[in-house]
UniProtKB/TrEMBL annotation:
Region (Disordered): 112-148
Domain of life where this protein originates: Bacteria
Biased segments, Basic and acidic residues type: 112-143
Lineage of the organism: Bacteria, Bacillati, Bacillota, Bacilli, Bacillales
Protein name per Swiss-Prot or TrEMBL: Phage replication protein O
């Protein structure tokens, strides 16, 4: 006889187990070990008997052989009577007193092995198109590089969070090429102000990937050049006199 049985810990709290002495507990465990795990044909007394899971054909002498040496036939009879009374098992004699068929009650409930149980069918993995159906991008792996931390802070403020993965790559590239975090933040603030002042509809706001790739360049502060100074001076001195002209030249050429 091969295999194993399952023994639940809750048996320790059962009234039946608490009322049994050591020999009766020995007999109980022995009977569980002797039961057939699956349907089988059993030869006993020169005859073939068909048994179901949890059943077996035996005799008092055979049970005694499997128990501890201090367990007697009378101990086995007493235990069988008690187990039947508690509803743990049932038994019926074979013809001509050649033995008995013992049936462990609720065998399927407590002794069915995990591999015998029906496992729920695994849910199929959604196809790539299903994952993108709702328009959401797959979650990105978190990174702790300085550029990524800067990007995350800027991304939280951007008004249209589309194309985050591409935006992150573009931000890294520009940072490595010399564009500072302050430049990006200043450009972002100017663009947000423009969107707010103009009331730009949501559908016309630049995607994040567009802004961080090249769109931010339109909102960088212009460096002072002679042309810029000329425009500023012309706006400041609409009717220059001699003194004003000298001031203009000083401002233009230092």
């Amino acid at each position: 006889m091969q295999g194993w049985i399952q023994l639940h810990r809750k048996i320790l709290k059962s009234d039946m187990w608490r009322n049994f002495n050591a020999k009766q507990r020995d007999v109980t465990i022995t009977l569980l070990l002797m039961a057939s795990h699956k349907g089988n044909r059993w030869e006993y007394g020169g005859e073939i008997h068909e048994v179901q899971p949890g059943q077996f054909v035996t005799s008092l002498d055979s049970i005694e052989d499997q128990c501890a040496k201090d367990v007697s036939i009378q101990n086995i009879k007493t235990t069988l009577t008690k187990l039947k009374r508690w509803g743990f098992l049932d038994w019926e004699p074979l013809p001509n007193n050649r033995g008995r068929i013992i049936t462990i009650t609720n065998w399927e409930k407590y002794q069915r092995m995990p591999e015998d149980k029906e496992q729920p069918e695994p849910k199929p993995e959604p196809a790539p198109k299903q994952k993108e159906k709702d328009g959401k991008e797959p979650p990105e792996k978190k990174s702790s590089t300085p550029y990524d931390i800067e990007f995350e802070n800027l991304w939280q403020e951007y008004p249209k969070k589309k194309g985050k993965a591409k935006a992150r790559v573009a931000y890294r590239r520009h940072r490595k090429n010399g564009v500072s975090e302050e430049d990006f933040r200043a450009a972002l603030d100017r663009y947000k102000t423009e969107v707010q002042q103009k009331g730009t509809p949501q559908q016309y706001i630049k995607h994040g990937s567009t802004f961080f790739n090249s769109g931010f360049e339109d909102y960088l502060e212009e460096e002072p050049t002679p042309d810029n100074l000329m425009n500023i001076t012309e706006r400041s001195y609409t009717t220059p006199g001699a003194d004003d002209t000298q001031k203009y030249l000083d401002a233009l050429f230092g």
